[in-house]
User: Fold this.
Amino acid sequence: MFAVIKTGGKQYKVATNDVIRVEKLPGQAGDVITLDQVLLVGDKIGAPTVVGASVTATLLEQTRGEKVIIFKKKRRQNYRRKKGHRQELTVLRITGIAGA
Assistant:
């Protein structure tokens, strides 16, 4: 069985024992997190979410993503700006999918 969940403004298709990297969620390694914004479970489609459905996950670690370079330039104006950004991420292992 699989589910589609929404967290951090993004949607993820997950199944049991999947490891996913999502936008940072509060908690520490070993915590159990319940995700209740489930858009689809198996053949049940929500409007917009499936009532009573939830996905449980174990938080594996808090980490940071790869660096994204932002470079701005205006030609012939001596204008150059270089910045970097590393997104805070949470690594989750999906432990269970409870459908309504």
Observations:
- Residues 2-98 form one domain.
- The CA atoms of residues 27 and 59 lie 7 Å apart.
- The chain has one domain: 2-98.
